[in-house]
Design goal:
Number of strands of chain B: 14
Strand order of the largest sheet of chain A: 1-4-5-6-7-10-11-12
CATH architecture of chain A: Alpha-Beta Barrel
Order of helices and strands of chain B: EHEHEHHEHEEEEEEEEEEH
CATH class of chain B: Alpha Beta
CATH class of chain A: Alpha Beta
Shape of chain A: globular
Oligomer: heterodimer
Structural class of chain B: alpha/beta
Helix content of chain B: 25-40%
Chain lengths: 261, 203
């Protein structure tokens, strides 16, 4: 049976993993290569790296880190941040990324999705959407949640998938970083809309939030989180055991297991 | 020496690194002589079947791969590289494959239950044929590996060495003599995948 993926997300700025709360108040956390190795040993099913660097030097540092990760970690790697052209796909794929996530670059120029899917295949193109509730609906936001595009989330995701995105990461900025649980209502609407895998992001506070998510939405493909893993609120082996005990299919083989504290 | 065939599809950095992790020196090459000199050969591949088959022909490597198989050297096709081992694919029209393993590549959407995502993406358990392939010697029934595909091999029952359950059993691995194929990505399948690559290097 296909298992539900548990995916730690590493935001990298100037060569370090950082984490913000509600897309603000960024804190320095760790060395990205060491952190990725630890998560892989503990059973992470995939790793997501977001490059949140603004500078040219930071970008070069990011691709160097990516290369070092791909050299020693043998689980799928998704890379996002600063992807505005097909050339950006080439840059990170050459460093060992398996999938590339597009966000604001695709909003500005939706043809980017078509171009990338034609060149690299849909399985390589992940549509990442930052969403927030505005009145009775959900809107797509830009630039870390600061700008409301006015675009409806369901409308944009339907367009992105029809253009060739092979997977969707839906990041709720209402729940991001506050550890009150995933935005199940919005995820349900998106999951019912598309037949590509959907990854829930934003709001995980503990194992019970993953259990609630996959119990409510058994078709959902994966759950992504950052701060609960980075700050040790829950360790991946313990999370997966709790999910398995709740009857959720997870992968418990193929990794070293518990890490010494 | 192991050769990873470079015919312009996909990034081979992870694949090369994964062989390094099991102590096997791999060269990434598109040169016929280097491929024929190797002790064992890996045919990778991502993207569309037709494009990949065209590229194999344009680079002249289509016949080289057939020569490797005819010489009885261990050959491993991964993902689209496995699909290319078959007679033909029905992905965007009919395309001829290498014809090294009888069977046909078709979309999974019509055969899986409604409501399941396409592509079949993520970690799924392997169920092995009664006669265990040497690639899977070190594994346990149900060990998980990473898949991402929308097409699969059919009509090849005699050569299937492992399946994965996705509403229906899908072909996960095949073998005919020293020609091996995995629909999943061993280079992205954690320790389980590394064990498989290590076994391949011991054949």
């Amino acid at each position: 049976m296909i298992t539900k993926r548990v995916i730690p997300c590493l935001d990298v700025r100037d060569g370090r993993v950082v984490k913000g709360v509600n897309f603000a108040g960024v804190r320095d956390v760790a060395d990205p290569v060491r952190m990725a190795e630890q998560y892989s040993r503990e059973g992470a099913d995939e790793l997501v790296f977001y490059d949140i660097t603004a500078s040219h030097e930071g970008r070069a540092l990011f691709t160097e880190i990516l290369r070092r990760v791909a050299e020693r970690i043998f689980v799928p790697l998704t890379v996002g941040g600063g992807i505005g052209a097909v050339e950006d796909f080439a840059r990170v794929l050459d460093c060992g990324a398996d999938k590339v996530s597009v966000n604001s670059g695709a909003l500005k120029r939706p043809q980017l999705i078509d171009e990338a899917a034609n060149r690299y295949g849909s399985q390589c193109v992940v549509l990442s959407v930052d969403a927030r509730r505005v009145g009775p609906e959900w809107h797509v936001f830009l630039h870390g949640g600061r700008i409301d595009t006015g675009r409806g989330v369901l409308d944009w995701i339907a367009e992105g998938v029809s253009r060739g995105a092979g997977e969707v990461v839906l990041n709720s900025m209402d729940t991001d970083g506050v550890r009150q649980g995933f935005d199940i209502e919005m995820l349900q609407a998106v999951d019912a809309l598309v037949d590509v895998p959907v990854i829930a992001s934003g709001g995980a506070g503990g194992a019970e939030d993953f259990i609630r998510l996959f119990t409510a939405l058994p078709r959902l493909s994966a759950g992504l989180a950052a701060s609960i893993f980075h700050f040790g609120a829950v360790r991946i082996p313990a999370l997966k055991r709790a999910m398995a005990a709740a009857g959720i299919p997870v992968r418990l083989d193929g990794f070293a297991g518990e890490e010494a504290e | 020496m192991l050769a990873i065939i470079d015919y312009g599809v996909g990034n081979l950095f992870s694949l090369k690194s994964s062989f390094a992790a099991v102590g096997e020196e791999a060269v990434v090459t598109g040169e016929r002589q280097a491929i024929l000199r190797a002790d064992r050969v890996v045919l990778p591949g991502v993207g569309a079947f037709g494009d990949a088959a065209d590229k194999l022909r344009q680079t002249g490597l289509f016949d080289t791969v057939r020569e490797v198989a005819a010489a009885g050297k261990p050959l491993l096709g991964i993902c689209l590289g496995m699909q290319l081992l078959f007679d033909r694919s029905m992905e965007f029209g009919e395309h001829q494959g290498l014809g090294l393993i009888p069977g046909e590549v078709r979309p999974i959407a019509p055969v899986i239950p409604q409501g399941l995502d396409v592509p079949h993406m993520g970690w799924n358990g392997l169920h092995f044929a009664a006669d265990r392939s040497p690639l899977f010697q070190g594994l346990q029934e149900g060990d998980h590996v990473y898949f991402v595909h929308s097409y699969a091999a059919f009509d090849c029952d005699a050569y299937v060495t492992a399946t994965a359950e996705y509403g229906v059993p899908l072909t996960a691995a095949v073998q005919r003599g020293h020609v091996f194929g995995t629909q999943f990505h061993p280079e992205k399948s954690g320790n389980t995948g590394l064990k498989i690559l290590k076994e391949f290097c011991a054949i």
